């Protein structure tokens, strides 16, 4: 058995959980922004549907 | 030394218990199909590693020349004092685990097998993957309260992340003497997710919440997004938690190779033959490392008790956070999807799918649940990296 240092344990857990949340929040925002840019870019790149040629009619 | 008589004469009741424990894991793997790819080699490793006088397997020569048939828990310090592994598996163990290579290579294969599409399509699932890490820290405190030292508590806590290779990697760095137990607990409880999660989910959700409908289809994800994802995840994690980079970097490289469309040969090998070979050595080596001399004490056995709480806390953390998120989020997320933040891929997502169907037959939650499921893997690797940083390893 070892002497429990609760203050140190609380620091490790607090900083740990906080950092994990920050990392995943940053990833959420980057993925969200990247997704929106990609979707817009994708739509712009999409070729327009061909119009029917009615000139012979 | 290698005769028939001496080995039989050295056989004790502790060896018998270990052979039964190994046999039980092999049985669970084959008969119940509980993580058979890892539990069968692991269980067999326990059997092979616990036959007395099996120097050729896990043998270790102490600094004074004495031969042991098992790798002592403090083997890393003994190596520095002149001791050396002399068995086939103890040599692989020294380099594969002592240098933390095998768990990292495992991530390369897992990356090639992972589809991040659901997470890219709805990135809010990153937050559910973070919330499920609550189990890591709850188990960490429980371990501290039960008298474990800080590095041991970190290694036990990470079991709650439900990620085998990360558990092995972190434990080898912080507290190698309990590595066998944390690894077995992580893999065993990953296999037991269908038994552990449903009662916890039912206890903290109403029937109406479980029946919350979600449209089954997620938006389609472009190839550019799939290629960009592993690159920016590596950069973000590398900048914020550099200690997690070995895990995340290999994980994301494996994934990148699987989505480029021009490296199929590499990703196919990584996702099949490569990961299989690594899995066999991971299971076999860890199993053989779990010796009667280090296993049959109350301390290590407590690891299993805390481990099951870690999974339960992680499940509860994910579900409760989803309920809180639903106060502001539209469209709402079925709270059970939060439980899949426990990164037991894909078992916890399957549990959510099954329970979702039971509560509302129109619900197909699998694709939604895969989002937090793979986010949880990234979250657990980040949690391990933070532990390594904070403890100064």
What would you say this structure looks like, in words?
The complex is a heterodimer of chains A (57) and B (393). Chain A contains one helix and no strands. Chain A has 57 residues and is an all-alpha fold. The longest helix of chain A has 40 residues, at 6-45. The radius of gyration of chain A is 27 Å and the shape is rod-shaped. Chain B is mainly α. Chain B folds into two domains: 4-96, no CATH class; 102-390, no CATH class. A three-stranded antiparallel sheet of chain B has the order 2-1-3. In chain B, helix 9 packs antiparallel against helix 20, helix 14 crosses helix 21 and helix 16 (223-240) packs antiparallel against helix 17 (245-259). Chain B starts with a helix and ends with a helix.
Which structural traits does this protein have?
heterodimer; A: 57 residues; mainly alpha; rod-shaped; B: 393 residues; 2 domains; 3-stranded antiparallel sheet; 69% helix
Topology:
The complex is a heterodimer of chains A (about 55) and B (about 400).
Chain A: H1 6-45
Chain B: H1 4-9, H2 13-31, H3 36-49, H4 55-58, E1 60-61, E2 67-68, H5 75-80, E3 84-85, H6 88-96, H7 102-113, H8 117-121, H9 125-131, H10 134-145, H11 150-157, H12 164-174, H13 179-191, H14 193-204, H15 207-210, H16 223-240, H17 245-259, H18 264-289, H19 292-295, H20 298-325, H21 347-359, H22 366-390
Antiparallel strand pairs in B: 1-2, 1-3
Helix pairs in contact in B: 2-3, 3-18, 6-18, 7-12, 7-17, 7-18, 9-20, 9-22, 10-11, 10-20, 11-12, 12-13, 12-22, 13-20, 14-20, 14-21, 16-17, 17-18, 21-22
